[in-house]
UniProtKB/TrEMBL annotation:
Gene3D superfamilies: Winged helix-like DNA-binding domain superfamily/Winged helix DNA-binding domain (1.10.10.10). Residues 11-145 form the HTH marR-type domain. InterPro entries: HTH_MarR-typ, MarR/SlyA-like, WH-like_DNA-bd_sf, WH_DNA-bd_sf. It comes from Lentzea atacamensis. This is MarR family transcriptional regulator. Signal peptide: none annotated. Pfam families: MarR.
Length: 160
């Protein structure tokens, strides 16, 4: 087999492994969200996480980070405003733009869901060997860096 075919097969196997792992992580996330009193979707939770990790921002920037149309982001914000998880206000600099920020309730939800997700993931990771865990840390760190996701560490989660 030529080197390019081996590389292509390896890339395909790696893609399959990441897709399978992402399915597991989505399931863990969905179970963690099930305990939230107000029903929110995974995309809505993603919005809350972005606001928690990056702070208040323009609605247009939030839509871009979520990779959705501004109208979709507006509907998501409308639902989250109704549950008092986010607040919106006119941008004082332009007044035509809207700034969205996480409320105390939204922060409480993000932290509770994250705490439950962390516990579930810890139980899964505990079933792996030390060598497997070490390799996973390196691989996932490179993967999230390539995807542009800000890193989360235990030190960042002092509120847990």
């Amino acid at each position: 087999m030529t080197r390019s075919k081996v590389g292509a097969n390896h890339a395909e196997a790696l893609t399959d492994a990441v897709l399978t792992a992402s399915r597991l992580l989505v399931a863990v996330s969905a179970r963690s969200l099930a305990a939230v009193e107000e029903t929110i979707t995974l995309p809505q939770f993603r919005m809350l996480v972005i606001l928690d990790s990056r702070g208040a921002m323009r609605l247009s920037s939030l839509a871009e980070l979520l990779d959705v149309n501004p109208s979709t982001a507006t509907r998501m914000v409308d639902r989250l405003v109704a549950t008092e998880m986010v607040a919106r206000q006119p941008n004082p600099a332009t007044r035509r733009e809207v700034i969205v920020e996480l409320t105390e309730e939204g922060t409480h939800v993000v932290r509770g869901v994250t705490r439950r997700r962390r516990a579930a993931i810890s139980r899964i990771v505990a079933k792996m060997s030390e060598d497997e865990r070490r390799g996973l840390v390196e691989a996932l760190t490179a993967f999230t860096k390539a995807g542009g996701e800000p890193a989360v560490t235990s030190a960042d989660l002092g509120w847990i």
